[in-house]
Amino acid sequence: MTQYYIREFKNLKTDILSTKVKTRPFLKIRFEKQNVSIKRTFVISDIHGRLAELKELLKKVEFSKNDMLIVLGDTIDKGNEGFRSLIFLMKILPDQGFHVRILMGNHEDMWYHMASKGASDKDKLNRLRSNFSSLKGDMKSFSKEGRKLMEELMGNWSNSIEEWENLKQTERELILEGMRKQFGEPRILVLQFSSFYGVFSHTANFKKKWQNQTLSDLTWNEEIDEFDTEYLMSFSNYLKIPIEKIVVFIGHIGERFFGIHKNYICMDNNKVNNKSNSLKSYCIEEKKMY
Ligand SMILES: [Mn+2]
After folding, report:
1. Rg of the chain's alpha carbons, rounded to an integer?
2. Per-residue pLDDT tens over the stretch 34-72
3. 198 C-alpha vs ligand 1 centroid, how far in Å?
4. Domains of the chain (ranges plus CATH)?
5. How far is the CA of 167 from the centre of ligand 1 (A)?
6. Is the pLDDT at 288 greater than 80, yes or no?
7. 56, 249, 256, 276, 287 from 261: Cα distances, Å
8. Ligand 1 center from residue 133 Cα (angstroms)
9. What is the model's pTM?
10. Ligand 1 centroid, distance to 202 Cα (angstroms)
């Protein structure tokens, strides 16, 4: 389904997910040791514009400057405050001394490619609007399935376009610059904790080694089988540690997979258009879901 989706996207005459995305240089993976001064590491994903819920959650866990929040992408779209959520995570919290790391999701990728083309802010806004309306026009050439997915995306974006237009120019520039640099993060972040490794990405293809993951695998893959172990095994082999010492975290794949599985922990609990589930976060050191 996902592959199909991308193919139809690529056929569009717009800039969205152009071939540039595939060839755009990006840091696929980075291995790091978690900073020893960090007491608790919280993982969250698919915030999708739920800023009030995000703040509520941070209050509930008593998020402090000794903690770190890892966001696995898809902070924007669907809800009303996607860009406000990003500004909160990438600017407001860090400026106050909080530790936050933000990974790119497919929604950030798409937004960057829709909203970043143009010489000036005004030009960028005009192109975004015209891209959006030409997408609407292009939809009739789509198959039934493609159209259904596009309609869903258009629904996701209508809030975003309104919010985007209401931001200050400097805020739009801040966000685009952040996205351009992928918020300073790789597509796969591997953190060594005291007794195990955490592997973080928006999503991944569990049938492939990490060395073979494509940008599409790490951004769009929805087909996850918890019994596929290639991905996990490749870390085990590379790091020379047993498979039990590796914990894979992903978002993206849908709230039906939310929670702790045999080979991964899924932090995507969004269901914004239907009923809103409350945002949840997993604390690594406490092995606890909040
Ligand atoms: Mn996603």
Report:
1. 18
2. 999 999 999 999 999 999 999 999 999 999 999 999 999
3. 19
4. 1-290 (3.60.21.10)
5. 23
6. yes
7. 26, 10, 12, 22, 13
8. 23
9. 0.89
10. 7
